[in-house]
From TrEMBL:
The lineage of its organism: Bacteria, Pseudomonadati, Pseudomonadota, Betaproteobacteria, Neisseriales. One of its GO terms (biological process) is bacterial-type flagellum-dependent cell motility. This is Flagellar hook-associated protein 2. It comes from the Bacteria. InterPro entries: FliD, FliD_C, FliD_N. Homopentamer. Residues 65-135 form the Flagellar hook-associated protein 2 N-terminal domain. Belongs to the FliD family. PANTHER family: FLAGELLAR CAP/ASSEMBLY PROTEIN FLID, FLAGELLAR HOOK-ASSOCIATED PROTEIN 2. It comes from Chromobacterium violaceum.
Length: 527
């Protein structure tokens, strides 16, 4: 054997070492021929440790790796909170939210009644003296047909707004509430004019009606009810007279003008507000729908008359929701307590320490609840019990009798408090689990980044500043690696030398002594 002396730079040494290691000859080999040799070295674990040894080391270390334990704990915490949130959302979801109650009307022909969240036990006496109605006006003439006789040609300009009335049919002025709409009419019949008006979106509705004599008339009505919802029609008649009782001008309707001279349609229904009393208190509305009788209770007026309306909030539904809130809280905190007690001491992880304490605070705090005096869970029968060990989560215990008493005195306040607490607990859990900025999510990402960084430099024995253990074994016991050629063994020695030059690690004496020959005059390897 002969000694070879190398004076190349570090980069050159790396290239020569890898060439020798793989059997690559740059003068005769192609790049493709290099790959099988490198692949065999990597797959056999000669450079980075055998696959079986690596997997055994990984399995062993994962059981005690503090980062992996922490990641597992955080993952379980997020799963617990996710289940907790699902339970809370079922409590306050709008489609099933408790506290709506039921209502009944003694005279459903007068009013229909509905309830929403916030309703509470109550009785209402509703008296309806006037329904809201829309202004309507009808042609003063009638025709024997609706689709063949021509009324006239020209244009109609329709405005909606309100009149300043001096009588039921006479006004001093008209104030428009929007832009006027102009409709062109050519040889219009009653039916074609009605169709043109309805298609223009002018805020009025036109219909052809048949009178008691069998004749046909055009009726035009405001689209909205209420005393301030009126309309005005001005005409540009092709016959040159825009206000007379001939041609298209017969459809003019301006109540600031004289009847028969600009006010040619006949008002058949005045615009009026609904008038009513609720338990003796007077009310007025431009609409017959959505009349508020009390908190969470509304009525649609159908006719004049009286009706007794009774509202009952369902205590059974309220009780079920309170039980669900306590169960969700206790299940979540119990799981968190078990997890932290078995795997991570609260004192070691600020996130783990704060989470149960934050949930405990939510169960004990005072909440804003509108005008209700019920602001804490204990006032509605949900009593908080502290944990046996500081730093863990407590429990909620439901006293049904106390819940019933709160319901009897303030059913709306009781329901709203439970709703508010469920929503608040969900918001807290969401701050920990939200993708992008959740506390647990951010900590998990930080730990994963730390773990990836460590894995880049710890695919070795746990002893610092040493080479991968299989490289040392290879150089120490070359006879056990009969599958390698002498050229590849020499290359490994060169690779170890270059590794020591290019990285801030110290070769231990065994590796240097058995793998390399080092002298004061340079580096040498046996070829």
């Amino acid at each position: 054997m002969r000694a070879m002396r190398y004076t190349q730079t570090r980069c050159g040494l790396r290239v020569l070492a890898m060439n020798a290691l793989s059997g690559y000859n740059p003068s005769v080999s192609s790049f493709d021929s290099l790959l099988p040799n490198l692949s065999s070295l990597l797959s056999s674990g000669l450079l980075l440790g055998s696959s079986s040894a690596a997997s055994q080391a990984s399995a062993s270390s994962s059981k005690t790796d503090p980062i992996q334990i922490e990641l597992s704990t955080l993952g379980q915490l997020m799963s617990i909170l996710g289940t907790f949130q699902s339970s809370l959302q079922q409590i306050y979801a709008p489609s099933i939210r408790f506290g709506g109650g039921t209502a009944s009307s003694s005279n459903p022909a007068v009013a229909s009644v509905s309830t929403s969240s916030g309703a509470q036990n109550a009785s209402y006496l509703l008296n309806v003296s006037q329904l809201a109605q829309a202004q309507s006006a009808t042609t003063s003439f009638s025709l024997s047909d609706s689709g063949s006789t021509v009324v006239g040609s020209g244009s109609l300009t329709i405005s909606t707004g309100s009149y300043a009335y001096t009588s039921s049919t006479s006004a001093t002025s008209f104030t428009a509430s929007g832009s006027p709409v102009t409709i062109s009419i050519s040889n219009g019949t009653l039916s074609s004019i009605a169709s043109s008006i309805n298609g223009a979106g002018a805020g009025v509705v036109a219909n052809v009606v048949q009178n008691a004599s069998g004749g046909y008339q055009l009726q035009i009505s405001q689209a909205s009810t209420g005393a301030s919802n009126n309309f005005k029609i001005t005409v540009s008649d092709n016959d040159g007279n825009n206000t007379d009782q001939s041609g298209l001008s017969r459809l003019a309707f301006d109540q600031t003008q004289a009847v028969g001279s600009g006010q040619n349609l006949t008002q058949t229904q005045a615009a009026l507000n609904a008038s009513y009393t609720v338990n003796g208190a007077s009310g007025s509305s431009a609409s017959n729908a959505g009349i508020q009788l009390g908190s969470g209770v509304s009525a649609n007026l159908l006719a004049t008359g009286s009706s007794n309306i009774t509202v009952n909030v369902d205590f059974g539904q309220l009780n079920t929701s309170a039980q669900s809130l306590a169960s969700a809280f206790n299940t979540a905190l119990g799981a968190i307590n078990s997890l932290l007690g078995n795997q991570v001491l609260p004192s070691q992880d600020p996130i783990a320490r704060q989470l149960p304490q934050m949930l405990n605070q939510q169960a004990q705090k005072s909440y804003s609840n509108g005008s209700s005096l019920l602001t804490t869970l204990s006032q509605v029968g949900l009593n908080y019990q502290s944990p046996a060990q500081y730093g863990l989560g407590g429990t909620l215990n439901l006293n049904v009798a106390s819940l019933q008493a709160a319901y009897n005195s303030d059913s709306s306040g009781t329901a709203n408090l439970l709703y508010t607490v469920a929503q608040s607990l969900n918001a807290l859990a969401n701050s920990y689990t939200t993708q992008g900025n959740g506390t647990l999510v951010n900590e998990t990402r930080a730990l994963q980044a730390q773990q990836r960084t460590r894995q880049l430099v710890t695919n070795t024995r746990p002893t610092p500043n040493t080479f991968p253990y299989n490289l040392q074994n290879l150089l120490s016991y070359p006879s056990s690696n009969s599958l390698l050629s002498s050229q590849q063994i020499s290359g490994l020695a060169m690779y170890a030398l270059v590794y020591s030059i290019g990285a801030p690690y110290a070769l231990n004496s065994l590796l240097v002594g058995q793998g390399l020959g080092l002298s004061s005059s340079g580096f040498s390897a046996i070829a």
